[in-house]
């Protein structure tokens, strides 16, 4: 947090992030709803993996993913300061426009690459996906399996809405979104595929769902 505040107050000239696709995406103030729901979404997922679910491994996978992403974000902002000029001049009146105006005043259009809104929401969905997939594999009752699938679908729709909100509110370029998704894919492959595979090869007697810390 201290590093982010320092970056926000830095006077370094940012590199402007822009794509021709950004010009084709209209501004829509109603996307402020999923954009702000991001804070509740990430907090709830972190609370669940910290206090409710019993697999320590899944908690560390999520924390390692978020920590890696945020560290790379801070390093990127130091090495390649970024900014954008996509925000429109807000005209008219209405509750949603006023909220967007407040967001624009509080959140400067700098340090945008990659989008942390996109990275964190995608990381949370992937953590829930792996968690539910493990539970469904061990579940015998079709009703509970359907419940898990509905949960994943609902959270997936929220995640997509959050990602779309970053470009429809002109908070980010599609380049920021693509960079965040790519970073998430790399972290997912590392913490959910490669490292568990190496660990299981070393200790084949350990069950996949057992609570172990192997990082």
TrEMBL record:
<keyword id="KW-0472">Membrane</keyword>
<keyword id="KW-0812">Transmembrane</keyword>
<feature type="transmembrane region" description="Helical">
    <location>
        <begin position="112"/>
        <end position="129"/>
    </location>
</feature>
<dbReference type="InterPro" id="IPR000326">
    <property type="entry name" value="PAP2/HPO"/>
</dbReference>
<keyword id="KW-1133">Transmembrane helix</keyword>
<feature type="transmembrane region" description="Helical">
    <location>
        <begin position="62"/>
        <end position="81"/>
    </location>
</feature>
<dbReference type="InterPro" id="IPR036938">
    <property type="entry name" value="PAP2/HPO_sf"/>
</dbReference>
<protein>
    <submittedName>
        <fullName>Phosphatase PAP2 family protein</fullName>
    </submittedName>
</protein>
<feature type="transmembrane region" description="Helical">
    <location>
        <begin position="150"/>
        <end position="168"/>
    </location>
</feature>
<feature type="domain" description="Phosphatidic acid phosphatase type 2/haloperoxidase">
    <location>
        <begin position="110"/>
        <end position="198"/>
    </location>
</feature>
<feature type="transmembrane region" description="Helical">
    <location>
        <begin position="30"/>
        <end position="50"/>
    </location>
</feature>
<feature type="transmembrane region" description="Helical">
    <location>
        <begin position="174"/>
        <end position="192"/>
    </location>
</feature>
<dbReference type="Pfam" id="PF01569">
    <property type="entry name" value="PAP2"/>
</dbReference>
